[in-house]
Amino acid sequence: MNTLFVVGLALFTGFIFGELIKYIKLPSVTGYIIGGLIVGSSFLNLIPYHYDLSLTWVINFALIIVAFNVAGELNINELKKLGTSVLIIVLFEALMTFVFISLFVYLTGVPMLQALLIGSIGAATAPPAIMVVIQEYKARGPVSQILLICTGLDDAIGLTLYAIMSSTLISHSGGAAFSVLGLILHITIGLLISIFIGALAALLLQLLSRFANSEVAYIALTLGILISMGGLMQNNLLGFELSPLLAAMTTGFIITNWSRDRKHIFNSIDSFGRVFYILFFVLAAARLKIRMLIKLGKIAIGYLLGRFVGKYAGTFLGGKISHAPSTVTKYAGIGLISQAGIAIGLCVVAAQQFPNISDLIVSIALGTTIVTEIVSPLLTKIALQKGNEINLAK
User: Fold this and answer.
1) pLDDT higher for 42 or 181?
2) How many secondary structure helices (H) and strands (E) does the chain include?
3) CA-to-CA distance for 386 and 331, rounded, in angstroms?
4) Fewest C-beta atoms under 10 Å: which of 55, 138, 304, 378?
């Protein structure tokens, strides 16, 4: 057993299960997760927990690419066309999911700050399963538009909530006295610095991309800037808790909207990043301890209920307030259950930051991800059918 074997096994397992899962009409990411479970510490133990931890850099690497690509889907002109309704819906569905998950998990006996941290991890929505279903049925209309925009925008809200909750828990765990106003100011400055660094990275990428003349050059340049930026930020520059993910999203948003080389940059990263996505999901799932998930059954149930209620109620209320089309108000919420990507990455980051509750966080986040990725494609299809967007496509 060595690191090369673990990486090779993860890639091979992810590819095989990602292809097999397509035969039952589920997204590849579900196969990656199931494959990781099988070869991980819960079953075959071919990827032992300590080897998985030694490859955390791969997961962080992939997570920065995910954050960059998610922001690449946020076209400012498309956002303007949708108006303020989409922003209100995104805000309500993300925040209410955070509130309901935190509340339901807290009611199962988890301490309040830990419950809030878990709630922040569950606020975001994963694009892959939703996009696959929309593309499969060639759906067009307000429901599918809202689903796609929400999967990009609420990741930013989830990242922000996680930064706030993790900083709060770190301060509380350290036993240091702190004022609420001082903590909020400290967190806000950290987030603003992260955004500023991301903007600087975008400027540097834009300036240097004019010298790139091949796909390899774009890959090396883009990843070099993103990964070095993320590595520097993990050193807690200036004494603030910085967010490499928020910085990567800022970089992606600026590049996709104002860079002349955006197609070359994102196309090169998309083709290269798929390998790391497989490693990302397989290695993350390999950490899950099924026995721990079973022991935490009521907490997992509370988490799932909170996610279902929060996504649906938030979309419904946000749609009513913003006067969105009735199909969006009634049905879009049930299409937003998918959880992977940012949520998995955040649970891994949280496990590193809070080792005393790492089993709890990883078990809940990854265990519930398996459930959401299995049911999400069906629920998304139902939302599109109820919105008459599949029939329109045909």
Assistant:
1) 42
2) 19, 0
3) 7
4) 138
CB 248 within 8 A of CB 329: no
Averaged over 290-306, what is the pLDDT? 84
DSSP state letters, 97-114: HHHHHHHHHHHTT--HHH
Q: What percent of the chain has pLDDT over 90?
A: 28
CA–CA distance from 45 to each of 41, 192, 287 (Å)?
4, 42, 10
**Among 311, 250, 370, residue whose Cα is nearest residue 125:** 311
Token pair for residue 202? Answer: 């975008």
Which structure tokens are listed for 160? 């922000």
Ordered DSSP codes for 331-367: HGGGG-----THHHHHHHHHHHH-GGGHHHHHHHHHH
Cα separation, 146 vs 328, in Å, equals: 7
Query: Long-range pairs for 347-352 at CB < 8 Å and ≥24 separation?
Result: 347/121, 347/284, 348/56, 348/59, 348/60, 348/63, 348/284, 348/287, 349/60, 349/63, 349/162, 350/117, 350/121, 350/162, 350/166, 351/287, 352/56
pLDDT computed for residue 177 by the predictor: 45
What's the mean pLDDT in 233-245? 73
Average pLDDT, the chain: 82
Q: Which CATH number does 3-393 carry?
A: 1.20.1530.20
Read off the pLDDT band of 320 (50, 70, 90): very high
Domain ranges of the chain: 3-393
Secondary structure of residue 353 in the 3-state scheme: helix
Q: How far apart are CA 263 and CA 215, in angstroms?
A: 11
Please tell me whether residue 123 adopts helix, strand or coil conformation. coil
- Rounded to an integer, what distance in angstroms lies between the CA atom of residue 252 and that of residue 265? 10
pLDDT at 307 over 90: yes
CA distance 261 to 254: 12
